[in-house]
Design a protein that fits this description.
76% helix; elongated; transmembrane; mainly alpha
């Protein structure tokens, strides 16, 4: 992965390239294990070049599909987490801290006002516009990753989870396909041993084949049980909380 990192900025590498690599990894690990020519010097070079091209293409697609998924999730959740957490009706941030953040935001942003639960209930759209304006302001003023490393870290974590979740269906398809191919090759390799007892046949199966199957099964489990909407939601709200906490560090212009 270090060979890829020098071609991308830190955010793109962590939130787009890494999900793309995870997406296509079953193909390349299967190719290396099952196709012996790919392990030669020439084969390795070709494999690397193809991998770079495929990962680069997939990484470019990550952002587009991730944004589409984001729009769907925000609509389902009732708004962007950076809007939701500032609402009085939401308890992600406790009321005392939220009030302190609003006081600070009112100092930083000329047209921001500290809302009340009554105002928010009577004018929810107007209140949300204020909250969206506040989050936009904070994003623009926390772009210095050196000054705000924790905001940047949470943004990367959210981008990674969102983008990889956007490709869940394709990821499962690629992993299952690679697993089936691996099982077929392993079966054909085993049947070539003739009429030996099953115990001896299993013992004779190539360790790389067994390792490949174990890796692919683990990846399939991760796609199904770990790459979930709830995972994306947790990361999204963690980023929103970290973004607002930065308001106390920003100086008044």
């Amino acid at each position: 992965m270090d060979d890829f990192s020098k071609y991308f900025d830190e955010y793109s590498f962590n939130s787009r390239v890494k999900p793309a690599f995870f997406l296509v990894f079953p193909i390349f690990i299967s190719l290396l294990v099952l196709f012996e020519p790919s392990r030669t010097w020439t084969g390795s070079t070709v494999t690397f070049l193809v991998a770079f091209g495929v990962i680069n293409f997939a990484a470019n697609q990550m952002s587009a599909k991730g944004n589409v998924l984001q729009d769907k999730l925000f609509k389902k959740w009732g708004g962007a987490p950076t809007t939701i957490v500032l609402r009085h009706s939401d308890n992600t941030i406790d009321s005392v801290t939220k009030s302190r953040y609003m006081d600070r935001l009112a100092l930083l942003i000329s047209n921001f006002t500290h809302t009340t639960p009554e105002y928010e209930q009577a004018n929810p759209e107007g209140a949300d516009e204020l909250y969206m304006s506040a989050s936009n302001y904070l994003r623009e003023h926390t772009r210095d990753t050196t000054a705000y490393p924790l905001v940047f870290k949470e943004n990367i974590a959210y981008g990674f989870s969102r983008n990889i979740r956007a490709f869940k269906t394709l990821g499962i398809f690629i992993t299952v396909s690679s697993l089936l191919v691996s099982l077929v090759v392993t079966y054909l390799d085993a049947t070539a041993l003739g009429s030996k007892p099953p115990k001896l046949v299993i013992q004779e199966i190539s360790f790389p084949y067994l390792g490949l199957i174990a890796i692919l099964l683990s990846m399939l489990w991760a796609w199904v049980f770990l790459v979930t909407e709830n995972w994306v939601k947790v990361r999204a709200f963690a980023y929103a909380k970290r973004l607002y906490s930065a308001c106390e560090k920003i100086t008044v212009d």
